Amino acid sequence: MADNVLENEKNLTSALISALATLKDPPTREQVEDRTRKLAAAFDYEGDLRAIVDEAMVAIDTRMGAGVSLVDVEAKHDEEWVFKRTIPWTYSDAYERYLKGERWSPGVVQSLSNVSTRILGHLQDPTSEGSWNRRGLVIGNVQSGKTANYMGVIAKAADAGYKFIIVIAGIHNNLRKQTQERVDEGFIGRSSDPDKRVPVGVGLSGTYPHPATLTNVNEDFNKLTAAKSGWKINDFSKPIILIIKKNVSTLEQLHKWLRELNAQGDGRISDVPMLLIDDEADNASINTNKPDLSPTRTNAMIRKILGLFAKSCYVGYTATPFANIFINPEAYDDDSREELFPRDFIYCLDAPTTYFGPDKVFLNEQTSGVILEPIFDFENYIPLSHKKDDSFTDLPPSLYEALREFVLAKAIRNLRGHANKHCSMMINVSRFVSVQKTVRDLISLYEKKLREAVKANYAMPETVSAQNSHMAALRNVFDNVYGSCGFAWAEVRAALWPVFDGLRIVVINSKSDEVLDYKKYEKEGHGLTVIAIGGLSLSRGLTIEGLCVSYMYRNTQMYDTLMQMGRWFGYRPGYEDLCRVHLSQDSINWYGHIADASEELRQQINRMRRDGLSPRQFGLYVRAHPDSLLITAANKMRSGEKIKVKQNFSGRLLESFVVPTNKQINETNDELISEYLKNRFGGKEIEKTTKGWIVRNVKIDLIEEFLVKFKTHSFHAESKANALTYLHAIADIYQEGDVLLISVAERGDNEQKFRLGTQDRKSAAKFGEDGWRMSKDRVASRGDEKLGLNPAQLKLAEDAAAQDSKSKSKEPSDVHYREIRKKPLLMIHVLGPVGSSAADDRIPAYGISFPPGHYETEIEVVANRVWMQHMQGAVADDPDAEEDYDE
Question: Cα separation of 227 and 232, whole Å?
């Protein structure tokens, strides 16, 4: 019965969204509610309508741009071949109908279809003669719909004539299983579960031409099983698809089967066009000694499989543009790097407008201030540098607080009509399986106490309930965190008991038999309420449905690993305001830094496309990006030697985000600023801005002179030298730059005394014994770079943002202002108070912004060991450090 209710709800929601999509103007909520009531009567649905209305409101407000591609402009490739052929879109049309049935907005389904067609156009026409291969990369966002995109590409590729399709789905069994299930529903149309081979998804239409597969939800590819079947890939009139792990032995078995049973006399397969989708293309590029995860061996096998086919296309999918395919020279030999480099195209996807992503969580100061909750108390309970056999007797108060948030969030969601929706909490605090189990035991113990307290008090008067310490703690979290949720405490308290009905606590790792089987609960007619505890298995690719509260305390700053750990990204219809993310301050700083750097790279693709450049230039730029040091130097500096690397600062802002606490140094820098301001940076005119002053067209030599005299914290010694070297390298292009002196009028601003007003940076944290580190590694406030631009320049920046497919808000960012200024910019700040420093402390800092466009202007720098050690962490996560690393 419950199953029918959920199915009925799903059908009603789908019909409602489709009906609303036909309206000329966006409807109001009242109009949606009215339409929902009428449709509910037609569907004979008597359940709660609020969640359906929420979902419909989100759907009609969701839009998705076309994205942008960077192509090899010299290649002889006609990407219009898709439109020149008459292709029956059997698989593609079925997939789009399936998505609409899954409550996708028709507009988003159409956008997805258009993008899939464009990506297909970047592949080779499978009916073309001769031998050919294409190599491409698609860059999406974490948890933003990359799987839906490549499913659309697979469906269209099959319609166009690709006969053999391989999807490499990460390195973990649970991710491969999840991907197999999605492919079953969106393409194969039949469950691959050997015990239940029934039509699903696209296959519910009786005439659907099911593709063949040699993998299933339980089993990866197996050469023996495939050989026993006696099948050859060209025996089939329909496409064949395999879903496999990125594992050396699996790839070897597949290669042997293809070579022995399918290759012809010349050792190649000439009559079967092949498409290989490499999901999480940057994964298995970690520097590991485990044979089955060796990046060199893994990618050598991928290349061998591609090499068997006379006609092949390789498309990598990643959410981390810093993927090691570009920047880790230690991970690949030269052949693999060249062969798998996306020489033909790079396609950057747009996330839908309702995507809950890095911008909202880390970059937008207003929203991130609500969502993020720094962890300060974990070291006293489970230190970052713990070992697998360390014993722990309790968890930090902040984790118990997060658990109380989760219970309240679920109660509020139930009140909003989400009782049958999935609701999850993620806890990721250790790579060790044994520690994960200990955390589960302690969480279970506390959950039991909370459950008993709620059972005894949820229906009691507040005067009685408030006497219980657990109920008082819940009330305190409600008042501080969810007070504006739309319900009073009395309503939420009364809704607490059902939260514990069916609440599960599971450990997810390579050695656990527990799984996050959301579909099982859907089939039983209700959602799963779960607290998932794990490590690496929770960190990449795996979708955690209905994720409300995340608690992560980990010690890795590798770009791809850290961003992939962000399972909190995704879509949160009707409960986005309830989501909370608990991280250490270091992780918050790093996520903000990575989100900034990743957004810069996405916008770089836009500029390079406009300038007619190719993936080769993008690859060079990324390899020479300052942040590539993090991975490049990490591998090479293990032996202790200093290394030199190429760097490019085009379009970058470099800031002294670690500042000294030494009063004498800060006073000297403050006097230096006054001296140059008094001399007007070489006799130039000083103009007032809304936040200080600007001096235009200052000689680059004078800017260099100022920076040489400015004393930095030792952390920035090398980076300042590198910035000066790069400034000198582009001096023949830019003889002059602008100088911004950021000053807050009400905080000591005095132009006559050449004194800058201070900027409050109380959120800074202590850095060693002699420094402060700015929050999110930023000194300037966002938007400072527009200061001093004239109205015409501001309009150009606004126009650039409006045309920028990567800018969700269409408001100019500092990157747009940087491009419009067209010259270097020195920004000078005086901060104070900083952290817990005295209110009258004055701590100078600087930032230097370089204009974009000089992608191949490189300088040679020496990796700074102090910087590297800090970025890596004293004891960074190491896959080979312990035998029971969660893999």
Answer: 9
